[in-house]
Write a structure and sequence with these properties.
Layout lengths: L1 E4 L14 H9 L3 E5 L10 H6 L3 E3 L2 H7 L2 E3 L17 E4 L7 H10 L2 E4 L13 H18 L21 E5 L3 H12 L3 E6 L2 H10 L4 E5 L2 H8 L4 E4 L25 E4 L20 E4 L2 E4 L9 H22 L1 H7 L1 H4 L2 E4 L2 E2 L2 H7 L7 H4 L2
Parallel strand pairs: 1-2, 1-4, 2-3, 4-5, 5-6, 7-8, 7-10, 8-9, 10-11, 11-13
Antiparallel strand pairs: 6-14, 12-13, 14-15
């Protein structure tokens, strides 16, 4: 198969879809890999390294899309890429369709096959979302701690306190991968942490495995409203695969928080789980509303591209090999996890939550891939 790896052009996105090691595995399996010039530089991978493993380096992004049967990316295509996408071309990347009608319409019009990392599901787990959730969860605490500093407009409290001084209170909403990582980071820095979830089995697990300064709490509107009054840093990580995140903290709740409280919305790619969140970039990461700092960077792991790219390729490579070796249709027939990653096929929406969010016609994926 002909595989193209373009340079990411979304603002402040420094990751690349495949590492040289990943490209080498694809080439050794008999596939051709073209990489856009400079695509890996910000992640620490030179064009020379890609050439050394057998990749062809193309100067322009147009050449990548023209060549490729499968395009492997990190983030969803943006406006300038829409005209480059060909009918029947397989796009393997993060899409988060539910947060963008414009993107959804563009991919429908392109007649491409859109296989989204974030909805590939294996035994109830999201294996291609996990590595970036791990990174984003850890970064959420790191960034939250920074913006709690007074020069950044924050409350002016150190997460772990010092001898004789209470630590900061951190509230994490969502006990999944990102939430667990955020809570562990905050606990490691000495904060007093509460982690909220609605799954009792998950709460029991967290009760057993978390450090003593982390308290798992059953999540409901009353508990959230109580916790926000005492929390200095609030991290939202709630995810509904393929759909918009629920708004668990409303605009009316902001006046119940301490001025200088920091909200970090890890769910911003799916529309955010705070009503007042808005997408931001690493260039301008925060907005302040009613004295509350909102951090809503849509590609948080892009700030640590070397770590993120290696972690992502570790997770995606076996799936990419399966798609390349068998073709997307056969691979998705034989692999249920990959089948759940299909969101749009040749103009038809095949992921129910995306269709429901935008009131679009839904087509059962089986009718398009099983003869």
């Amino acid at each position: 198969m002909k595989i193209g790896v373009p340079k990411e052009i979304k603002p402040q996105e420094a990751r690349v879809g495949v590492t040289p090691a990943g490209a080498s595995s694809l080439i050794q399996a008999g596939h051709k890999v073209h990489v856009q010039k400079g695509a890996g530089l910000l992640s620490g991978f030179s064009d020379k390294t890609y050439k050394k493993v057998g990749c062809v380096i193309n100067d322009k992004i147009e050449e990548i899309y023209h060549f490729a049967e499968m395009v492997i990316k990190v983030k969803e295509p943006i406006d300038s890429e829409y005209p480059l996408i060909k009918p029947n071309q397989l796009l393997f990347t993060y899409f988060h369709f539910a947060s963008s009608k414009k993107l959804t319409d563009a991919m429908i019009e392109s007649k491409a096959v859109c296989l989204a990392y974030e909805t590939v599901e294996d035994d109830g787990k999201l294996p291609l979302l996990i590595p970036m959730s791990e990174v984003a969860g850890r970064m959420a605490t790191q960034e939250g701690a920074k913006y709690l500093e007074k020069p950044q407009g924050g409350f002016g409290i150190l997460l772990g306190g010092v001898a004789g001084v209470k630590p900061a209170n951190v509230m994490v909403i969502g006990g999944g991968v990102a939430g667990t990582e955020a809570a562990l980071m905050a606990a490691g820095l000495g904060a007093s942490v509460s982690i909220l979830d609605t799954n009792l089995d998950r709460l029991r697990y967290l009760e057993i495995t978390m450090p003593s300064n982390v308290t798992p709490i059953f999540s409901n509107p009353f508990t959230i409203e109580q916790e926000i009054r005492r929390s200095h840093l609030i991290i939202g990580t709630v995810l509904i695969p393929g759909s918009k995140a629920p708004k668990l903290i409303t605009k009316n709740m902001l006046d119940k928080m301490m001025p200088g409280t920091v909200l970090v919305d890890v769910a911003i790619d799916q529309g955010g789980c705070f009503e007042t969140s808005q997408p931001t970039t690493h260039d301008d990461p925060v907005v302040i509303k009613q004295g509350i700092i909102h951090y809503g960077v849509t590609n948080m792991p892009g700030a640590v591209p070397n770590t993120s790219t290696i972690a992502l390729t570790n997770a995606t490579l076996n799936f990419a090999l399966e798609l390349a070796n068998k073709g997307w249709k056969t691979a998705c027939v034989e692999n249920q996890a990959l089948r759940k990653g299909l969101n749009i096929i040749q103009g038809r929406v095949v992921y129910k939550q995306v269709a429901e969010v935008f009131d679009l016609a839904y087509t059962d994926v089986s009718s398009l891939i099983i003869n």
